[in-house]
Structures are given as structure tokens and as C-alpha cells.
Design brief:
There is one protein chain. This protein has about 350 residues and is mostly helical. It has two domains: about 40 residues, no CATH class; about 250 residues, Orthogonal Bundle (MetI-like fold), CATH 1.10.3720.10. About 75% of the residues lie in helices and about 0% in strands. The longest helix has about 40 residues. The chain is globular and about 85 Å long. The N and C termini lie close together (about 5 Å).
């Protein structure tokens, strides 16, 4: 296991180095001047030249790349061109919100998707199977931003016209609550502070964004679970278990589902990594202060240090999640061992 983790650590360094170089070169190839965007169209040539010099953007690209790689190796991701704040500080400020939203979305997807897939497999070729798979197809097909707007309109805007305040449409917690920031995960911080009402309010703020972000993973998980369960339920050892007189629940959940977990775990890892890096639409609809919105603003402002920092963060999380998935393989299937 130690050799496996060391190998993954080396891969992480190589992947991050490659992504850093490619993203740096790509941003330099895109037309546009971030200094001009920051100063505005009325800035004088002298002001533009002075800011470019102070930011080191007047140097050749390979010199900038070498300096940036050296700084990253020492843990310095640079400063934002737009507001001069350290990139690492901005990522630490925005990432917990995205992490909290992603974990909530995946919890919703797992809680609904796996049982739906199991039920569809057990009731294969029935009306329940057809209905479940039709719902999964619909969930994959609906655009995230459209679903978010519909949920906001139906469950927040329309009830407000009738004097009902069902769901909030933005933010992570009501302004009436003050929660000391310890982990920067609002729900966890509220629980640590012993404020149950604040924790419930934070969870209530998560409902609509989590459903919006988790709908596509839910549909994919349901389809993968159904497919894996159908393969396992037709295996000889399942027929043997049934012939021994084991109950349906034992056969389905203890024997069939556990042996179908490998593809499910794989898709869970992939979807978690994708959600962490692709929550920008959901965060925009619900004004969620996450790193997805931060990356979108950085791209709009052509803020290269911040863009590179976001990309490094997404790549690191994705590799770590996939490493955890490989470890879970051994937990789900004792025959898998890493030496």
C-alpha cells in the first residue's frame, strides 16, 4: 500500500507540472491584455507599461514560466492581477463553499441514485424499471442552469408571492446568524458552535443548489448501479444463494450489491472530481461563493495567476479523489490488493 501511495504521489507531481505548463502557455496564447482589462480603456500607455513591469509581464514567456514554477515549488501561487490578493488565500476562502456544496450534491445523488438503480434491477423490465430509467435519462438531459432556475422559481419565487418563505435563493446562511469560522464549512461550524438552528438554516440553503448539482450524478449513478446489478444478479453464486434459502434482502444487498460496487465506486469518484471543478453554473444561479464562480471571474478578467491556481486546485482534488477510489476498491473487494 505504501508503494502504491508513493507511486500516486509521484504521478500527482507530474500531472500538476504538466497541467501548470500547458495552462500557462495556453493563457499566454489567448489574445487580450489583463493589464488593460484591470486599468480600463482610459489608462495611459505609461500606466499600462508601469503595471506590466511591476507584475513581470514585460518579460519573455519562458522567463515568466520559470519564475512561476519556482514560486509554485515553494508554495507561492502568486497574486491575483485583478485585486493583488494572494491566490492561495483566495482559494482557501472560496474552496470550502464548493466542497460543502459538492459533498451535499453527492450525498443526495448517492442516497437516491443507488436505491433507484437497485430497485430498477430487481424489478427488471417492469413499469418501475422503465420509469426509473426514464427519470435517469431526463436527469442527464436537463441543463444544470435551467434546472436551477426552475427550482428557484417554483420553490422560492412563486411561494414568496403567496407570503411563504420556503427556500432561500442565494447565500450559504441567513444574515441573522453568526457562526465562528473554524472549518469554513458552515454546517460543520454551526454544529461545532452548538447552534442547531444555524446548522438547519445552512442545510436549508443547501437543498436547492445540491439538488441542482446532484441531478446529473444521480442519473448516472442510477444507470451504472442498475447495469452492475443486472450483471451480478444473473451470476451463478446469486442463484446458489437463493437456492440455499437466503432472503431477498440478504441476496440483493449483501451479495449482489457489494459485488456490483466496483463500477459504482468508479463513477462516484469521477463525478465527485467533476463536480468540484464544474460547479460554476450552479454557483452562478444561486450566488454561491465557491471556487467555480471564482474561476469564471478569473477567466473573464484573464487573471492568469488565479486561473492557474484554480486549475492546480481542481487537478489536485481530482487526483486525490481517484486515489481514494482505488483504495476503496480494496475495501469493497477483498481480492484486490496493492503491494
Amino acid at each position: 500500500m505504501l508503494r502504491f501511495l508513493a507511486d500516486r504521489l509521484v504521478r500527482l507531481v507530474v500531472v500538476l507540472l504538466a497541467i501548470t505548463v500547458v495552462s500557462f502557455l495556453f493563457m499566454h496564447a489567448i489574445p487580450g491584455d489583463p493589464v488593460a482589462l484591470r486599468l480600463g480603456e482610459h489608462a495611459s500607455p505609461q500606466e499600462v507599461a508601469h503595471l506590466r513591469s511591476s507584475l513581470g509581464l514585460d518579460r519573455p514567456w519562458f522567463v515568466q514560466l520559470a519564475l512561476y514554477l519556482g514560486a509554485v515549488a515553494h508554495g507561492d501561487l502568486g497574486a491575483s492581477i485583478f485585486d493583488s490578493q494572494p491566490v492561495a488565500q483566495k482559494l482557501a476562502q472560496y474552496f470550502p463553499a464548493t466542497l460543502e456544496l459538492t459533498l451535499s450534491a453527492m450525498a443526495f445523488a448517492i442516497a437516491v441514485g443507488i436505491p433507484a438503480g437497485v430497485l430498477a434491477a430487481v424489478r427488471h423490465r417492469s413499469a418501475i424499471d422503465a420509469l426509473t430509467m426514464s427519470g435517469a435519462l431526463l436527469g442527464v438531459s436537463i441543463p444544470v442552469f435551467w434546472l436551477g432556475w426552475i427550482l428557484v422559481y417554483v420553490f422560492a419565487v412563486l411561494p414568496s408571492h403567496a407570503g411563504l418563505n420556503l427556500f432561500p435563493i442565494s447565500g450559504r446562511i441567513a444574515l441573522t446568524y453568526f457562526v465562528p469560522a473554524r472549518t469554513h464549512l458552515v454546517v460543520v461550524d454551526a454544529l461545532l458552535a452548538g447552534n442547531g438552528r444555524a446548522a438547519l438554516d445552512a442545510l436549508w440553503h443547501l437543498v436547492l443548489p445540491a439538488i441542482t448539482l446532484g441531478t446529473i450524478p444521480l442519473a448516472i449513478i442510477a444507470k451504472i448501479t442498475r447495469s452492475g446489478m443486472l450483471d451480478v444478479l444473473s451470476a451463478d453464486y446469486i442463484r446458489t444463494a437463493r437456492a440455499k434459502g437466503l432472503g431477498p434482502r440478504v441476496v440483493v444487498f449483501k451479495h449482489a450489491l457489494r459485488n456490483a460496487l466496483i463500477p459504482i465506486i468508479t463513477i462516484l469518484g469521477l463525478q465527485t472530481g467533476l463536480l468540484l471543478g464544474g460547479a460554476v453554473l450552479t454557483e452562478s444561479v444561486f450566488a454561491w461563493p465557491g471556487v467555480g464562480r471564482l474561476a469564471f471571474e478569473a477567466i473573464s478578467n484573464r487573471d492568469m495567476p488565479l486561473i492557474n491556481g484554480c486549475i492546480l486546485l481542481f487537478a489536485t482534488v481530482f487526483v486525490i479523489v481517484n486515489t481514494l477510489v482505488d483504495v476503496l476498491y480494496a475495501v469493497a473487494n477483498p481480492r484486490i490488493r496493492y503491494s
